[in-house]
């Protein structure tokens, strides 16, 4: 498989990736950042997988059940047909809580004829660090390992357990199931119960999707992206993951391989802003509580990222026994970037706090705490905004005065002033406004390069950077301001490659970037739209949508030449930016319709 041709299933506790041929190649249980039980994605021989195959005459087609996170893989040779409905159970219980156990259901739906299938069940627990053995018991197959650490996994099935373990060909005459469980079940699962789990989970997702507004254009893409973002949220704490995977390389054979199963304050805040715009305010509320819980001390500086259970130490290690995706080593777990200083996170967080207060001011439970956090952020920003940092792209070399970081420090002050107005705290406004103006002048003076007629990556630099395109969307500059228009044009001339954007072109700690960072292309499309080049923006957007995989999913990067997806997958950043672009085009279409009807 040359592309990331995978579907994601999940239940806001963990997730799994299933290939377009029906092979379960990645899953960590009991939660997103646990050790893997299947990791063929990161080592084709040693990683472990759960494959369902049929004969060579069978054609395989895969799609999501409409508006759900249930993945349907259909196998048919014309006469003999069956489907695999893959999902992780999630539904509302009478107790008022969600049922989201650490389980995967592979429901086998008989359609016609006498289809034959073969199962290859090969879990490798604990990142395949030791040997995993499988044993058929009366009610289940148990897999266990004990070399590095003791761990177990249970498989319940309606099929013959010995035939499953032997990989024997089986003839399907009726519906059946496989249930992968982290915990041993108290009550024995049956096909009827699994069918009910499927229907309950389907109802949950259909209800959730129904609460998302309907858009005139690109509605299908918006809903699929929204469901994907929902699957990347961790219900227990409100954290939002950057992606469901670790160590999928930005470029094949290179070392830019990182663990993304954590909550970056920046990524998560941007996701929450979009998700709340789609009307899902519970996710926003839980995320705000996640942030409140992380800031017990008024002068405590935020880390750029945390574990999904609020862990602060994310020590980075390498798994040298794994070959990596397509041989791209090293495979990393943990992420040393948690130690980095990035000043932009305060502005991004203040933007989310302001958005939630503006939208749901009558329904915010933590007003006093949010006001305390606002004052704390202003204090930290006022003390540190003049200092250099690592920037949005997490350069591991020397600190610099990155333009994006400075703009987001300004955003922190701008939104803090607006929050003060909401809360009626007028005494703070005069002092804060003076600092906000000082920051704005500093950025205009030092980030603008008149030689290339653009805002640049960092003070005194001549390098361009796609992140400065966000100046407009954060309200720092108007879209029609000549400085912004010329910046967009300069970025188009210098960073665009066949319609796909580099983040930047200067060398970083690992050399020159050789793949496009997907979110940057969405930012560029949005900027073209805002400066009035709407037809060109739409053409770029439709072409970019064509680079998604067969299910409409995006990873972090796209190869400039082959257009294959690269980097961790699916990437929350990419899908939130897709939604923002799609909503802009859809609103424009709605406005045109209204004008037509008036005319």
Automatic annotation (TrEMBL):
Keyword Hydrolase: yes
Tagged with keyword Hydrolase: yes
Entries under SUPFAM superfamilies matching the protein: Six-hairpin glycosidases
Pfam families according to UniProt: Glyco_hydro_15 (PF00723), TREH_N (PF19291)
GO process terms (BP): carbohydrate metabolic process
UniProt cross-references to InterPro entries, sorted A to Z: 6-hairpin_glycosidase_sf (IPR008928), 6hp_glycosidase-like_sf (IPR012341), GH15-like (IPR011613), Trehalase-like_N (IPR045582)
Enzyme Commission number, as recorded: 3.2.1.3
GO molecular function ontology, one term from the record: glucan 1,4-alpha-glucosidase activity
Keyword annotations: Glycosidase, Hydrolase
Residue span(s) of domain Trehalase-like N-terminal: 8-138
GH15-like domain boundaries: 220-582
Name of this protein: Glucan 1,4-alpha-glucosidase
Species the sequence originates in: Flagellimonas maritima
């Amino acid at each position: 498989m040359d592309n990331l041709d995978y579907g994601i299933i999940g239940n806001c506790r963990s997730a799994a990736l299933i290939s377009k041929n029906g092979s379960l190649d990645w899953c960590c249980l009991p939660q997103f950042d646990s050790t893997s039980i299947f990791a063929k994605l990161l080592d084709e021989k040693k990683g472990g997988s759960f494959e369902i195959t049929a004969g060579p005459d069978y054609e395989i087609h895969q799609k999501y059940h409409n508006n759900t996170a249930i993945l349907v893989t259909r196998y048919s040779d014309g006469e003999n047909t069956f489907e695999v409905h893959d999902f992780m159970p999630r539904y509302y219980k009478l107790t008022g809580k969600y049922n989201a156990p650490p389980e995967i259901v592979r429901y086998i739906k008989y359609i016609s004829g006498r289809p034959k299938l073969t199962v290859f069940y090969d879990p490798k627990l604990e990142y395949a660090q030791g040997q995993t053995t499988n044993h058929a018991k009366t009610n289940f197959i148990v897999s266990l390992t004990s070399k590095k650490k003791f761990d177990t996994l249970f498989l319940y099935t309606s099929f013959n357990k010995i035939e499953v373990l032997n990989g024997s060909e089986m003839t399907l005459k009726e519906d059946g199931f496989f249930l992968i469980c982290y915990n041993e079940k108290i009550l024995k699962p049956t096909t009827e119960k699994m069918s009910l789990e499927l229907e309950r989970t389907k109802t949950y997702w259909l209800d959730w999707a129904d609460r998302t507004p309907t858009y005139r254009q690109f509605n299908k893409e918006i809903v699929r992206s929204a469901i994907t973002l929902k699957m990347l949220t961790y219900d227990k704490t409100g954290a939002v993951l950057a992606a469901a995977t670790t160590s999928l390389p930005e470029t094949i054979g290179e070392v830019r391989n990182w663990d993304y199963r954590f909550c970056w304050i920046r990524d998560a805040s941007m996701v929450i802003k979009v998700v709340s715009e789609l009307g899902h305010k519970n996710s926003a509320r839980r995320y705000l509580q996640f942030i409140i819980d992380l800031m017990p001390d008024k002068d405590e500086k935020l880390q750029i990222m945390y574990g999904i259970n609020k862990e602060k130490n994310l020590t980075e290690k390498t798994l040298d026994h794994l070959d990596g995706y397509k041989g791209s080593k090293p495979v990393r777990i943990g992420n040393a970037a948690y130690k980095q200083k990035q000043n932009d996170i305060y502005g991004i967080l203040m933007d989310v706090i302001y958005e939630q207060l503006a939208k749901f001011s009558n329904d915010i439970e933590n007003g006093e705490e949010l006001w305390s956090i606002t004052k704390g952020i202003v204090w930290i920003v006022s003390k540190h905004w003049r200092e250099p940092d690592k920037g949005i792209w997490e350069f591991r070399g020397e600190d610099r005065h990155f333009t994006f970081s400075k703009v987001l420090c300004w955003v922190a002050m701008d939104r803090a002033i607006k929050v003060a107005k909401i809360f009626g705290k007028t005494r703070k406004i005069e002092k804060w406004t003076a600092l906000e103006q000082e920051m704005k002048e500093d950025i205009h003076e030092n980030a603008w390069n008149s030689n290339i007629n653009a805002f640049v990556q960092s003070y005194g630099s001549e390098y361009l950077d796609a992140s400065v395109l966000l100046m407009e969307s954060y309200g720092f500059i108007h879209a029609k301001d000549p400085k912004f228009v010329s910046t967009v044009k300069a970025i188009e001339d210098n960073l665009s490659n066949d319609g796909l954007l580099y983040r930047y072109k200067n060398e970083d700690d690992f050399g020159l970037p050789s793949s496009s960072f997907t979110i940057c292309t969405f930012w560029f499309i949005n900027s073209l739209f805002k400066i009035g080049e709407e037809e060109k923006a739409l053409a770029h957007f439709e072409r970019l949508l064509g680079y998604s995989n067969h299910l409409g999913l995006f990873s972090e990067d796209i190869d400039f030449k082959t257009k294959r997806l690269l980097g961790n997958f699916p990437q929350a950043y990419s899908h939130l930016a897709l939604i923002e672009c799609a909503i802009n085009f859809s609103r424009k279409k709605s406005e045109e319709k209204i004008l037509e009807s008036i005319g």
